[in-house]
Structures are given as structure tokens and as C-alpha cells.
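**User:** My hope is that you can spare some time for a protein that puzzles me. I have put the entry right below:
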Amino acid sequence: MNTRMRRAAVAVAATAMAVSLAACGSAKESGDKDGGSEPAAGKKGDAVKIGLLLPENGTARYEKFDKPIIEKKVGELTGGKGEVVYANAKQDATLQAQQVDTMITNKVDALILDAVDSKAIENSVKKAKAEGIPVIAFDRLAEGPIDAYTSFDNEEVGRVQGTALLEALKGTDKPTVVMMHGSITDPNAALFKKGAKSVLDGKVTYGKEYDTKEWKAENANANMEGAITALGKDKIDGVYSANDGMAGGIITALKAAGIKELPPVTGQDAELAGVQHIVTGEQYMSVYKPYPQEGIVAAEMAVALAKGEKLDSIATSKVDNASTQGIPSVLVPVVSLTKANIMDTVVKDGIWTVDEICTAKYKSACDAAGLK
């Protein structure tokens, strides 16, 4: 992404954030309150060391997109002198706390943190702060003295999912929907749920509802099997799935139950399997989140704070967590992904190629969808 496009994206994100944060729970608009905007002492040169802690490797985005995007941008911002030290917690909050300790021992100059458990990580954030290491909350708003935050508009993600599901259910009288939310340890899951329900409340019946442990597909699969048993396989008109991985487990359960015409299923993250499910019609939609924009902003924040610079030119909005007010923030807009706009979104942006999507198994469905 060139500089002009990036600046425009950030400007749009900041504007969208200013409108959306009024209803964002803990991530609410905070006006001019004092908070995490003061830079750490940092280094003045380009030879900065940035710690990058990502939460898991089961979701493709983290190591396929976020890690290389951040590494590349740190290199560009530092003339190749900056270093990114990486660790993945593999969905283990205890391991991630140990990884923060290691980053502190290794004297990183700033830390980009995507928390496995936003509350459990608070003490680790405090430790980093005590050592003068600024912490950028990436994708999920962790608790503690966070210095900066970038993510997507997570309530809007839920609204986009809910709106698409209603569109798919148009013409169905009093539809019954199964709600498959994400993990309760992820603050984003609560925001997705809030956004989706703001659209769906009063318009559908919630047949069964689950908070899915660790976002795992196998847990969503087991939950869906329970919902089918409880409701009956002919009584489920739609399924709200908070992400694509869980959607895959849900689709497997629906097919295993012998349901020939699958109900519309939502998703998020535009994972390859999710896009392929959309092509075949097994999944109705996903939410495409432009990862390059989010990763670029995180890298910019980290390098600036590592050098002891302020974030005024990067983040024009602020959010609060439970303990810190006025955290400089940027939220990036999202896009509803359906069969109709695959070419104009994930293919155009280089997330997936047509060849990656349209393997032999999916060739006929791709041809029918016009993916060439």
C-alpha cells in the first residue's frame, strides 16, 4: 500500500472511529482525558527492537499477514535498522505472560501485543510499563497501562454480520437463529456480539446461543451438534458464526446431520477455507478486514514510541480500557464479503489469488461464480 493510500485509510478509520466509539462499551470515546499518549523515553535512532506477540497460529491471518506486514513496515520506517522479535502464544495465556517477561529481559524498545486473554495479561503490561517499554494493543484491547491501540471497528463487524444474515433470511417468517459467539477471554467477542444483536434483536428468535471456548472449530462443531439435537435439524433458519474457523466446524455439523440445504452461516476474517465455503454456497458471508492497514498502523505506533515520539500524527482518536483513559487509537473499517465481491476485495488486495481459492475441488463452483 502506498503512502497516499495508507494515509487516506487511516484518516477514514479515524473518522469512522469517532462516530462508532460512543457505543463501544469499554472502548468508548474519551475526549481529552489524560491517558497513554505520553511517549516512553525510547531510543532516538533507528536501531530499535520491537517485540511482537501474537495470540495463536490456528487462524491464518496472524502469521500469513500480520507478522510479515509488521516486519516489513518496521524495516521501512527504520531504514532496515529496526528488528522485530516475534513469539506466538498458541492460545496459551500463561505462555504469553512468559513471553512478555522474555521480551522485557531482551530489552525491547516497544511491544506490540495481541492478547490471548485481555484481563489475564494486565500484570504483564504493568511489568513492561515499569521497565519503560511502551505497549501497543494490537487487534484486541488488553487491560493495563496500554500506550496505543489499533484494531478494526469490532461492533461494526457484528453489525455487518447481522445485517448480512437478515438479508439472507429475507422472506423467512419468524426465523430461528443459532448464535455462535467467540471466546469470553477475547474482548472483541463481546463487541461482535453486541453489534450483531443490535441488528438482530426483535427480528429473529435465538434458538440456542453459545460462547465458544478458545474460538476453536471443534468446540463450535460440538455446540452446533447440541443445537441441532435441541432444536431439530429442520428448525434452524440461520447461524450466526463470529468467525470463519468456527463456521467450518458448524458447516461440518450441519452436513453430518444430513441437512441437505444448509442455512445461511456468517463468518469473519476472510480465511481461505471461509472464502472457499462462500464460493460453494456453504457459507453465506465473511467479514474482510484489511490486515495491511492494521499492521502498518501498529508498526508506525511501535517505532514512534520506541523512538520517544508522540503519536499525534498517527492517532487522532482515543479509547479507554478499565484502567487507562485516553489511549491513542486507530480503528480500521471492514467490508462484508460475499460471493459477489470476492474479486474486488481479497483478490484485488492480494490476500488470496484465484489459483489459491479455485483449487481442483472448487473449480466448478469458481467457474459458476465467475472467478477466473
